[in-house]
């Protein structure tokens, strides 16, 4: 620690298709860490995987390891593969530097939607019915199509920010949707649509190990979007987040309990956002989890905690302090 301040390296950018989103999250974290408590070291990861701090020249892995010298804790504000999926976390584990958020296993399992679903189902949580298409699989069998029905959703198994996702309303649209998804990942998940409201719950771990679920958020999108896609998330100002979501006590307790259960099922630490569909408005169905959700002040996770009275700088402080408590 420097002059009683904690030295925090904020990683942002990265090699994934979510590079630009990560730049925004990283900048927001840098801008909102309390300068009286933290000395911030911005670390940029370029789209080709080189690492740089400040005005220094970017370099490879050996250079990256050197950037952690004198750092007390790392804040990986990274989204998608090569950042949120356990890869950077494994490097930090080997170097022995504390870091904010989920570890290697939770990052990998939470990034791969196939294994997320398997782990959650094993612990009794409901997920949408689905089929995994691997390398060489180009479409569903007639039996699988009949089982899932239309509409269905086709998505890359290991991306975020709704990249490569299509809503398919008829069989003749399926091949193109699979092709689009495979532009992002060799493994594709095809899921039955779950009609109902879309609700998110944020889970936060405190430094003493206590877990807390924040106020649920309901997403309402404009009729011009078939679902909560990339544009609706990041570009459309008509997208509305209702916080807290209008849920009765029984339903609110159910989604909070299931969000906490998902956190434990995946072996998470620090934080998790769990996205639900409410089948027929009543039955929670886990859609996806996000082990490092968007982290601008306007993003869902910080907004949910702000509604609970935890403003963004305090939220960052809790995350950093929790990471240091595990040291």
Automatic annotation (TrEMBL):
Q: What Enzyme Commission number(s) appear in the record?
A: 6.3.2.4
The keyword Cell cycle appears for this protein: no
Q: Which top-rank group of organisms is this from?
A: Bacteria
Domain ATP-grasp, residue spans: 117-321
| Residues forming the catalytic site | 18, 161, 299
Q: Which residues bind Mg(2+) 1?
A: 275, 288
Which transformation does this protein catalyse, written as a reaction?
A: 2 D-alanine + ATP = D-alanyl-D-alanine + ADP + phosphate + H(+)
Q: What are the record keywords, sorted?
A: ATP-binding, Cell shape, Cell wall biogenesis/degradation, Cytoplasm, Ligase, Magnesium, Manganese, Metal-binding, Nucleotide-binding, Peptidoglycan synthesis
Q: Where in the cell is it found?
A: Cytoplasm
Coiled-coil ranges per the record?
none
Co-factor(s) = Mg(2+); Mn(2+)
**EC top class named in words:** ligase
- Cofactor-binding details, from the entry: Binds 2 magnesium or manganese ions per subunit.
Enumerate the residues binding Mg(2+) 2: 288, 290
Instruction: Please list the residues that bind ATP.
Output: 113, 153-155, 161-162, 191-198, 287-288
List the Gene Ontology MF annotations in alphabetical order: ATP binding; D-alanine-D-alanine ligase activity; metal ion binding
Q: Which InterPro entries match?
A: ATP-grasp, ATP_grasp_subdomain_1, D-Ala_lig_Van_CS, D_ala_D_ala, Dala_Dala_lig_C, Dala_Dala_lig_N, PreATP-grasp_dom_sf
Which pathway does the protein contribute to? Glycan biosynthesis; Cell wall biogenesis; peptidoglycan biosynthesis
Q: Which GO terms describe its cellular component?
A: cytosol
* Keyword Ligase in annotation: yes
Instruction: Name any Gene Ontology BP term.
Output: peptidoglycan biosynthetic process
Q: What does this protein do?
A: Cell wall formation.
Q: Which family does it belong to?
A: Belongs to the D-alanine--D-alanine ligase family.
Protein name, UniProt field: D-alanine--D-alanine ligase
């Amino acid at each position: 620690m420097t002059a009683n301040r904690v030295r925090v390296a904020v990683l942002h950018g990265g090699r994934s298709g979510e590079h630009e989103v990560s730049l925004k999250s990283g900048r927001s974290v840098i801008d909102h860490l309390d300068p009286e408590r933290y000395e911030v070291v911005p670390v940029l990861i370029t789209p080709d995987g080189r690492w740089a701090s400040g005005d220094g020249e970017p370099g490879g892995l050996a250079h990256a390891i050197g950037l952690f010298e004198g750092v007390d804790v790392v804040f990986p504000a990274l989204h998608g593969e090569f950042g949120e999926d356990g890869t950077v976390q494994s490097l930090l584990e080997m170097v022995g530097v504390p870091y904010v958020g989920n570890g290697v296993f939770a990052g990998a399992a939470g990034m791969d939607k196939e294994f997320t679903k398997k782990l959650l189902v094993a612990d009794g949580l409901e997920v949408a019915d689905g089929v995994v298409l691997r390398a060489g699989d180009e479409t569903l069998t007639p039996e699988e199509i009949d089982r899932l029905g239309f509409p269905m959703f086709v998505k890359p198994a290991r991306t975020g920010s709704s990249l490569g996702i299509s809503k398919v309303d008829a069989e003749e649209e399926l091949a193109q949707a699979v092709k689009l998804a495979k532009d992002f990942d060799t493994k594709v998940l095809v899921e039955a649509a779950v009609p109902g409201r879309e609700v998110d719950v944020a889970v936060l771990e405190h430094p003493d190990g206590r877990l807390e679920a924040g106020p649920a958020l309901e997403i309402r999108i404009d009729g011009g979007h078939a679902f909560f896609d990339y544009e609706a998330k990041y570009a459309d100002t008509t997208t509305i987040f209702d916080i807290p979501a209008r849920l009765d006590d029984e339903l609110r307790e159910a989604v909070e309990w299931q969000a906490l259960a998902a956190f434990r099922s995946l072996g998470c630490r620090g934080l998790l956002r769990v996205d639900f569909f409410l089948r027929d408005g009543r039955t929670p169905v886990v859609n996806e989890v996000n082990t490092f959700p968007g982290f601008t002040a306007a993003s869902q996770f910080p907004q949910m905690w702000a509604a609970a009275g935890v403003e963004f700088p305090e939220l960052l402080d809790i995350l950093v302090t929790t990471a240091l408590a595990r040291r």
